[in-house]
Design a protein that fits this description.
Layout lengths: L5 E6 L2 E5 L5 E8 L5 E8 L2 H21 L9 H15 L4 H19 L9 H14 L2 H20 L26 H13 L14 H12 L3 H5 L6 E2 L6 E4 L2 E3 L7 E3 L9 E4 L2 H13 L20 H14 L7 H16 L1 H8 L4 H7 L10 H5 L13
Antiparallel strand pairs: 1-2, 2-3, 3-4, 5-6, 6-9, 7-8
Family: Belongs to the 'phage' integrase family.
GO molecular function: DNA binding
Keywords: DNA integration, DNA recombination, DNA-binding
């Protein structure tokens, strides 16, 4: 007659039973992915062995769940990143350039610090110290970018019930160091024009001479306030030189997705950035010249293009500008310098709201903080007003 199976007690939610053959069975209820409770069990010669094997089984089931897109507090941060990137692609709300930037920031800035942690080990203290260290040793900008992607990824962990709350919520606020926008003076702009116009124009130099597009791109940036990508994305159909003043519709940008050819994106950085601007005569003249150059092309053809009629990359234009100006002894100038210069000139003549409208900003506060060079000069009318305080004849005798 077989010996009856005798329960030998429980260990938390684990039930231990001695079987007829003398081995010990450990069983526990496990809630599966479909929400149903199922029994998971394991056996061993001793209670300790059975418990150990049961926990191994549970770990394997949890790992299998994680491999299917699940997250638990014991999931690795690396696994969270993989699921977060898949989630970004599933939503499809980000522009390809932004999606690539998020992944690059995550892998280069954040992963080295957290890849060996499980989610339960990522505390407010660890995150806070990481951001402060990054801001100190690298830059505020890098710390801000790291904060953005880390917050998004940890927010996904909260939505997947792998974390109770986002550790980012209680970290200290990053303090932005004071930065003053610097605009170019008219003399500086003219010096840049001369340097670009004269670059590699001498005799006896190897290779083909410059095609003249760089100086034309600068004129269009100065005449439109457009970002470099917006200028390079301007098409024949976006320009109207039949009206006075001529207009340019800024409605796209150039992107270079990883592993894909450079292409025109049919919308600029933000929805507000789509705008039609009237341009000054010097920019209109350049646009007329470009239209003549592509007179036989279709309406979708780009105004500026490579020798193969493909889009120019923003990085190449930046690199070429830097090379030209370095040789001319001019430092600290980027394509964005022209955008700040336009904002400052318009602010002085028409105010910050008009400058924000020209640049395609949703708020003039953005324009004032990042693009307009502060004006140290106070309105001279104050001198006339303060004449009221001037001493009058006979005041000293009273």
């Amino acid at each position: 007659m077989a010996r009856p199976r005798t329960p030998i007690g429980t260990f938390g939610d684990i039930e231990f039973t001695t079987l007829a053959n003398g081995t010990v069975r450990a069983r526990v209820r496990f809630r599966d992915l479909d929400g149903r409770l199922r029994r998971v069990e394991a056996s061993g010669r001793t209670r300790k062995t059975a418990e150990h094997r049961l926990k191994e089984n549970l770990t394997q089931r949890a790992d299998h769940s994680a491999g299917s897109g699940e997250l638990t507090p014991d999931s690795s941060f690396r696994h969270l990143v993989d699921i977060w990137l898949e989630d970004l692609d599933l939503e499809g709300k980000l522009a390809p350039s932004t999606r690539a930037l998020y992944e690059r920031n995550m892998r280069q800035l954040v992963m080295p610090a957290f890849e060996n942690y499980s989610l339960r080990e990522i505390s407010v203290r660890k995150v806070d110290r990481f951001l402060k260290t990054l801001a100190t040793t690298k830059s505020y900008s890098m710390a801000k970018q790291a904060r953005t992607v880390l917050s998004l990824a940890l927010g996904l962990a909260v939505r997947y019930d792998a974390l109770r709350e986002n550790p980012m919520r209680d970290t200290a606020r990053l303090r932005k160091p004071p930065v003053q926008a610097m605009a170019l003076t008219v003399d500086q702009v003219n010096a840049i024009r001369a340097a670009v116009r004269e670059w590699r124009r001498g005799t006896g130099l190897p290779g083909p001479p410059p095609d003249g597009q760089l100086e034309q791109i600068i004129e269009v940036m100065l005449g439109t306030s457009a970002r470099i990508g917006e200028v390079l994305a301007t098409r024949k159909c976006d320009v109207d030189v039949t009206v006075s003043p001529a207009t340019v519709r800024l409605c796209g940008t150039i992107v270079s997705p990883t592993g894909k050819p450079t292409q025109r994106q049919p919308h600029p950085k933000t929805a507000k950035s789509t705008r039609t601007v009237s341009v000054p005569s010097f920019a209109a003249e350049v646009l007329r010249q470009r239209l003549v150059a592509i007179a036989t092309e279709d309406a979708e053809h780009l105004i500026f293009f490579s020798r193969n009629h493909t889009p120019l990359t923003t990085n190449n234009i930046r690199r070429r500008l830097r090379t030209v100006l370095d040789e001319a002894g001019i430092s600290g100038v980027t394509p964005h310098s022209f955008r700040r210069t336009v904002a400052t000139v318009i602010d002085r003549a028409g105010g910050a709201d008009l400058a924000a409208e020209m640049l395609g900003h949703t708020s003039s506060q953005i324009t004032k903080e990042h693009y307009i060079e502060p004006d140290e000069k106070v309105n001279p009318v104050t001198a006339e007003i303060l004449e009221l305080l001037a001493p009058r004849p006979g005041d000293d005798e009273r």
